[in-house]
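Late entry, written up from scratch paper. The run itself happened at the end of the previous shift, but nothing got recorded in the book at the time, so transcribing now.
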Amino acid sequence: MDLGSVARSTGAEWIGQVPHEPLAPKSRPVVPAHDSFHRPPEGFEHARPGTVLRSRDVEVAFLGFIPQKFTATQLLYRSTDLNGEPQATVTTVVAPTERADTGPLPIVSYQCAIDAVAGRCFPSYALRRGAKAVGAVAQFEFLLIAAALAEGWAVSVPDHEGTAGMWGAPYEPGYHVLDGVRAAINHDSLGLSPNSPVGLWGYSGGGLASAWAAEVQGAYAPELNVVGAVLGSPVGNLGHTFRRLNGSIYSGLPAMVVAALTHIYPDLERIISEHATDEGKAMLARIERMTTAHAMIRLAGTDMASLIDRPLEEVLLTPEVQHVFDSIKLGTCAPTAPVLIVQAVHDRIISVADIDELTETYTRGGASVTYHRDMFSEHLLLHPMSAPMTLRWLRDRFAGRPLRAHIARTKWPTLLNPSTYRGMLTLSVITAKVLTGRRVERQPLSRFDQ
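Output as recorded:
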């Protein structure tokens, strides 16, 4: 199937339209699996990708209980799965309290590190007031979403794993991201236009989803004005990451990927069924209900070799597993939009060698790549510390400023850059306002990183 043709084909603009749902501030949200809003109307598959199927206003809250003074709208929209079949998912679009000064309103699609199968980790649930999502990374990433809003930009936060939490699936996270932007542009009340410049931003699992969006955008959504993509520690090679993290304190992450991928690849499910012990099968079933932090704590130090009846390397080298590893690896296509890749050299979760390889693949394919290869930071620290640089880079792309010549090499570390700390002061002010539920005015973090 030519997904680019599908995206551009004519079709119904609005299928199974239902009334816009007004804000219900005192209602406690339910998880997506039990929320009728997430169920697409009959006939939705005939709509074009990006068609808004349903909308509602929601209250967003930090950690689920500190209400925020942003206007947030959730959109259920038609998208596509990795096989080109129709699928529906949700994005939460948040409007800035004060928009950027001139030109069409920019929009950033921020991909959270969902890194779980459980619906409690989906941003459409975790960001809402009243959500019980302890251990969902999206709740903490709201601080960086707020920083993008303080730039005067709209922010789309998609459930890029789809309705079933397909963590690690190839291609479809990109489709979900891009169709979420289409949906936001199609929804008139958000004040966006087809000319709105689009930026992509994500880190770790969110960086992986952003990378898939950057790779497929040229063929799938060429009409979108994507001007830049920030790929923070974007995993690169999930097969290598599985071997790297298995048996470590981070072993819950690859275990959750396996749990999700068994629903995508029937041959992998058969391998698990044949060789996993009863304890291993029970663990995979339990992990699908856990939040990211819960799984990491519960499975810290777990070696998957202890949960199968064959040597682990023997199972990993089977054609079925190798096919999965090959198909979920990034680098299938060079992005058409400029990309900024941010990666720590001493990252204990994502191998810098894998990101070096991805950067070289993109560069050989003709992509415009800026590579910040940070010497001092590690995985968790680099995301907030690189925020001023990231937002400045996106601001320059939105303004149409030319890119300089770039070489993939180790950069002056963010920890030794004075502008990082000036930017972090502003981020601290934004954080304080989020923590106290105060209005976040336009206060660009990026202005300190020149």
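The chain is about 35% helix and 15% strand.
(Scratch paper discarded after transcription.)
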